[in-house]
Amino acid sequence: xxxxxxxxxxxxxxxxxxxxxxxxxIDDKPDGLWLPYLxxxxxxxxxxxxxxxxxxxxxxGTDENCRTMLHFAVESGNLELVKYLTEKVGLSPLxxxxxxxxxxxxxxxxxxxxxxxxxxxxxxFSLADSYKNPILSGMHPDPSIVCVGDDFYxxxxxxxxxxxxxxSHSKDLIHWEVIGHAxxxxxxxxxxxxxxxRGYWAPDISYYDGKFYITATYRQNDTVDDVDSYAWNAxxxxxxxVVSSERPEGPYxxxxxxxxxxxxxxxxxxxxxxxxxxxxxxxxxxxxxPDGTKQLSxxxxxxxGHNKRAPEGSHLLKKDGWYYLFQAEGGTGMGHRISVAxxxxxxxxxxxCPFNPIMRQEDPKQVIQRCGHGKPVCTPxxxxxxxxxxxxxxxxxxxxxxxxxALDKITWTADGWPMVNNLQGPSVLAKKPELEEFAVPxxxxxxxxxxxxxxWVTVREPEENFAEVREDGVYLLGSRADLCEVSARNLxxxxxxxxxxxxxxxxSYASFQxxxxxxxxxxxxxxxxxxxxxxxxxxxTILKVxxxxxxxxxxxxxxxxxxxEKEIVLKCDTKGLERTFSYRREKEAEFTVLxxxxxxxxxxxxxxxxxxxxxxxxxxxxxxxxxxxVPVQYFFIKNIEK
Length: 642
Hints:
Elements: H1 3-8, H2 12-21, H3 35-41, H4 45-54, H5 69-76, H6 79-87, H7 103-109, H8 113-123, E1 130-132, E2 144-148, E3 151-155, E4 161-162, E5 164-170, E6 177-183, H9 186-189, E7 199-208, E8 211-219, E9 238-245, E10 256-258, E11 266-269, E12 275-279, E13 283-288, E14 300-303, E15 312-319, E16 322-329, E17 337-343, E18 351-352, E19 369-378, E20 384-391, E21 403-412, E22 418-420, E23 429-431, E24 458-459, E25 467-470, E26 473-477, E27 492-495, E28 500-508, E29 517-525, E30 528-537, E31 540-549, E32 552-561, E33 567-575, E34 578-585, E35 592-597, E36 618-624, E37 629-635
Antiparallel strand pairs: 1-23, 2-3, 3-5, 4-24, 5-6, 7-8, 8-9, 9-10, 11-12, 12-13, 13-14, 15-16, 16-17, 17-18, 19-20, 20-21, 21-22, 25-26, 26-37, 27-36, 28-33, 28-37, 29-30, 29-36, 30-31, 31-32, 33-34, 34-35
Helix pairs in contact: 3-5, 5-6, 5-7, 7-8
C-alpha cells in the first residue's frame, strides 16, 4: 500500500507504518497534490495530527495556487480539523491564495456555515464587516492621504496621463471616488514632450488654513529638448510643483515651482505654523512659505533611513510630543518596505524603530508584493491606518496592473512605536474601519450624451475638442502621430483594474480615408502597446491586431472587411497575459474570433528595458489619421471575472 492509498482510505495505522519505514515519502506529490494536503482535503483529523506532530513535513509553504493546508481543510468541512490547523499549527484564515481567496471566504463560498461562524469568532469580524486589499486596483501608486472633518482625500501618481494627479474622496477608507485632478488646464501640465513614465511622481496632499495643498515631483526627460515654454525646459530635471485650492476637487491654482532637486515631496506644518517640504534622498527638509510656493531655507538631512537603500517617500507626523518620520526604502520593486524613526526635536537625531521595517512583504510566494511608500492617517474615531502602494503579478513576474493602493491598520506599542498590521505584512482580508460605509456611484459603461467620466484620461495633453460626446457616442479627433510617437494625441484610456475582464466597442468606419485607423488599444506607453482596429490601406478596409514592442511593429491577425458595411463591434477578452480578439459585423448576431495572443508580457513594467517603466496597463480607444474625425461609439465593461 502506498501512502496516498493509506491516506485516501483513512488508515492511520498504515500511514504510521509507511512513514516510519520511509519518512521521505511525505514529500511526494502524486497527481500533483502534496499528500498532507490530501489528508486535509479528506478531513482526516487523526492523520493530519500525526503528519503535523511526527512527520518531517513543514507547513510554512503553499501549493502552486498559493493555498495553505487550511484551504484544503476548509474543503472537508471538518470543524475540529480546521480549529486544529488554525489554533495549534497557526495557519491563518485570512491568508489569500493566487486569486486572493482566503480560507474564511472559501468556507462561505462552499456553504460551510459552521466554519464561517467559527472564523467569525476567531477573527473578530464577519465577512460583511471586512474589506480586501488592494483598495484601489490598477495603476494607483504612491498614495498620500489627508483627513479633513469626516472626509478622506487621497492622491496618486499620474505620470504622463492627463488630467494630472487624480484626487479621490472617501468616508470609509475602503470605497473611493475620483472627484477631480490637481492639474486640468492643458497649458499648465507640461506633458507634451515627455517620454512615458515621466511627468508627475509621488504627489502629497495636505490641508492648512482652509486650503488643500498638493505637491508632486515634475520629472522631465533625462535629455531635455527644446519646448515652447521655458518653464518646462529648466534645470534640474526633477522639479517640485505646488498647487492649492479651497475645494478638494479643485480647480487648483497654477503650479508653482520649487527647484530643489529630489523626488517624492511632502509638506509638513509644525505646531508653530511654520511649513516645511521633505524630499529624498533620505529625508531632506527645508522651510517653505506659508502659501507653499517658495523655498525659504537650504535643505538639511534629517535622517537617511533604516535600510540605507533608495530612501524616499518621506512623511512627518507629530504625535504625543514625538516627530515620527515614515520612509519608503529598498526601491519600488520586490524589496520595497516602510520604516519609521522618531525624534523629540524636528531637527534632532532620529532613532530608528526597533521593529523596522513596519511594513514589508516577507513571503515571495504571496500575491501582494512590493509594499511601501505609505502615509498614516487618523480617523475621526481615533483609529490609525496607513495607505501604501503594493503590486500583484501574473505568474509571479508580470506587473500588468502596475502599483496599486492598499490599506492596513496601525497600532501603537506601549512605548509609542507604530506597527502596521501587527508586522504581518500586507493583509488580504481585514476588518473594516469603524466608519459609516461610503456609497460610490457606479461608473457609466456606455457613452451617449453623458460627459466623459473622471476615470477617463489621455496620454499627455489632448488636442482641443479632441472628443465630442453626442447622443450616439463619442467622436474622436484623429491624431496626426501614431501611438509609437511621443507626439501622439487623443487616446481615450482608463486603468486596467482586473487581470480578467471583457471590453467592447462599436466602431463606425464610414468616413475612413486612406492611411486612417481607429479602434481599441491595450496600452502601456509609446514603446509597448497593441491595436485592435480598422485600418484603411491600399484602398482596402482591414480589421487587424497590430503589436508594437520597442522599435518593432507587426500585424498578428487580419481580415478584410466588405466596403458595403460601415459598422463593426470589437471585443477583447482578457485573462492574465492572454488576449482574445473577436468581432461582430453589422448584420451578424454572433462574434467571430479573429485570434488570440497568448502572452502580451510587454504591457507591464517588466516587458522591456527602456526608459521609466512603473506605470500600468491601460485600455481604451484611439483614432489615428491626420486630423480626420472618426466617429466611435464606445462602451466599456470591466472586471467581469472569468
